[in-house]
């Protein structure tokens, strides 16, 4: 299913999740739970396939969700997971969690910076990127998502929303080749 359609289906659930989180004064806790759920999904493609399988009965999915997340996430979050299963929307769990985190960042004026570098960034380099992003975005806080891509040769690529700062050696070589042609 296309990402845009999946996001449209997941958006009301993400918004409801944020509404409950604000009501219960648990916005940050729900965010941590959403990150935890995403890391479990990233670690287990089998779990995501099981939850997305339309042939698996809803009760089996809810039982697995209970086993996997009870005591590890807020009870309200577990209720949302069960609601997604009941409504046959558990397939969109990843999009619901991503949507919640995006809404949380917007609420708390936090910019998401996706940083791709040739090598692992040191703490000082990460702090430098955070300060640069804070200047560019005027955000109160910055959340870094760092990835390593050895094909960059050196430098970094920083994405903040639709803005891209390409300070990579590969990007500089590409620009130089374009200027020479």
Keywords for this entry:
62% helix; 181 residues; alpha+beta; four-stranded mixed β-sheet; elongated; single chain
Q: What is the helix/strand order?
A: HHHHHHEHEEEH
Instruction: Count up the helices.
Output: 8
What share of residues are in beta strands? 15-25%
Total number of strands: 4
Q: For the record, give the distance between the C-alpha atoms at the N and C termini, rounded to a whole number.
A: 40 Å
Specify the structural class.
alpha+beta
Q: What is the overall pLDDT average?
A: 90
Biggest pleated sheet: 4 strands, mixed
CATH class of the largest domain: Mainly Alpha
Q: Report the helical percentage.
A: 55-70%
The CATH topology of the largest domain is given as Peroxidase, domain 1
Spatially, the strands of the biggest sheet line up as 2-1-3-4
Uncertain runs are none
Shape: elongated
Overall CATH architecture of the largest domain = Orthogonal Bundle
**How many domains in all?**
2
At the fourth CATH level, what is the homologous superfamily of the largest domain?
N-terminal domain of the delta subunit of the F1F0-ATP synthase
